[in-house]
Structures are given as structure tokens and as C-alpha cells.
Automatic annotation (TrEMBL):
Pfam families recorded: ABC_tran (PF00005), BCA_ABC_TP_C (PF12399)
Keyword field contains Glycoprotein: no
Residue span(s) of domain ABC transporter: 6-247
Keyword Lipid biosynthesis: no
Protein name: Branched-chain amino acid transport system ATP-binding protein
Keyword annotations from UniProtKB, A to Z: ATP-binding, Nucleotide-binding, Transport
Database matches in InterPro entries: AAA+_ATPase (IPR003593), ABC_AA/LPS_Transport (IPR051120), ABC_transporter-like_ATP-bd (IPR003439), BCA_ABC_TP_C (IPR032823), P-loop_NTPase (IPR027417)
Gene Ontology, cellular component aspect: plasma membrane
Top-level division of the source organism's lineage: Bacteria
Cited Gene3D superfamilies: P-loop containing nucleotide triphosphate hydrolases (3.40.50.300)
Entry GO MF terms: ATP binding; ATP hydrolysis activity
UniProt source species: Devosia enhydra
Lineage of the species this protein comes from: Bacteria, Pseudomonadati, Pseudomonadota, Alphaproteobacteria, Hyphomicrobiales
Amino acid sequence: MADPVLSVTGLSRSFGALKATDEVTLDLRPGEIHALIGPNGAGKSTLINLISGALSPDAGSVHLGGMDVTRLGVSARARLGLGRTYQISSLFPEFSALRNVMLAVQARQGSSFRFFLPVMADASLRDPALSLLDRVGLAARAHVIAAELSHGERRQLELAMALALSPRLLLLDEPMAGMGPEGSKAMTALLAQLGHALPILLVEHDMDAVFALADRISVLVYGRIIATGSVEEIRRDPEVRRAYLGDAA
Ligand SMILES: Nc1ncnc2c1ncn2[C@@H]1O[C@H](COP(=O)(O)OP(=O)(O)OP(=O)(O)O)[C@@H](O)[C@H]1O
């Protein structure tokens, strides 16, 4: 089996007396979508923050492509290829979708040598930005300002901006949140298509999306992974059904 792109081993993190992450071990393999599910407060966001470097663990390690990044911060991990969607608040709402992505492309390329060039005229930013917008299905909305995009379109834009940094993997924390059925369907199709090229660790409450997309699922309950397996294995697992899935299975 190919080496994992990301591996997390024995990761733990407490907040006071609460063990939000309790000896979690999981990996993300090339070309897979690995979904992380669990009830509210199970510790999914804490785990994502430990992986991205926004939080540091009390114990355990995080390896990216075989390299120990446990002591590195968010930007160092991002430079090593760990991609994560931007929060909506980090979009520039008054800039067009295209300009937002061009700025992300510029951040990737390093901007100092073209300091005097007007950004919008710069084909080395514009061309890749247009193709990223096309990749996430937003080409027709390139010139609309971010504030006027729908919620679902803003999430697509965040994905384009994450992709602009040429990540080796994506961490996605609830990409379907706040979307209606149509938006969820469109995002599911987009992630299915991206997932072939780029491994994705996906935290998501929308079980239809998880069952449609995941190659493997890990179930987190009270900070611990109680099961990891294929969609069918997880649907059948009696402990998972008891702890989490109930009727959704
Ligand atoms: N900074 C913090 N300080 C104290 N407690 C925290 C902190 N962050 C998270 N927690 C607690 O850790 C537990 C796990 O929270 P976390 O947000 O990781 O869960 P989650 O699975 O992402 O939940 P949800 O599905 O509701 O987003 C919760 O009990 C939460 O209250």
C-alpha cells in the first residue's frame, strides 16, 4: 500500500479536565476521501486544529508525507502542502471572485518581484486563477464580488483559494454547513471530482454526502476513534450505530 500522505499517531489534547482528543491514530492515503464523523462535541474540530497546527497536542505526533510536523505552526504546515479551506471571513468581500483567487495564487508564488505590476493585469496570476475558478465550477461568476456570491458559491471560492496553494491534501471542516439540498449536491459532486486528484480529510455532518463520498470513515466519540472502515463496515458496526448513526444507517 502507498505511504500515507498524512498520519496522526496517539494524538491527545485536553482542555482542563476534558480530553477533547484522546489518543487518536488515523491516516490519509493518496487518492482517498477519509471522512471523520461523530456527534456534536466529539472533538472533530479540535482534531482538525491539531492537524493543521492551530492547536498543539499534549502528546502524539503528526506526520506529513513522512515528515514530523508536530512542532510546526500553521503556516509552515501550509507551506509543506497541508491545505485547509479558508473561513468565509478571510475572503475579501469587496473583491471579485477572480481577484480573491489571484491573491491566493500570488501568495503561493511570492509577490515581491512583481511589486509594481497591477495585480489584475498580471497574466501569471490571472490564468491560473481562472482555471482554478473553472475547476470549482465558478468560471461564470469570476467577476462577481465575493459579497454577492451565494453561501454555496463562497464555499466553492474558498476551495479555489485553498487549491491555489497547490496542497498535497485538503482538510475540510463541514464544507456543506449552511447549504440547502442543491448546494450540498453540487459540493458533493465537486469534492468527488477533486478527491480523485487530492486526498481529503472531511469532517461533515451531512451523512448523505459522507456515504456518497467517503472511501473510509472514522467515527469519533468523546475524543476517541471507535471505528475506522469502509462505508459498509461503518454502517454495519453495532457500536457505531449505538453511539452515533442510529436510524441514519
Ligand atoms: N478552546 C477550548 N477550550 C475549552 N474547551 C474546548 C475548546 N475547544 C473545544 N472544547 C471542548 O472540546 C470538546 C470537543 O469540541 P469540538 O469543537 O472539537 O467538537 P466537534 O466534534 O467539532 O463538535 P461540533 O460537531 O459541534 O462542531 C467539546 O466539549 C468542546 O466544548
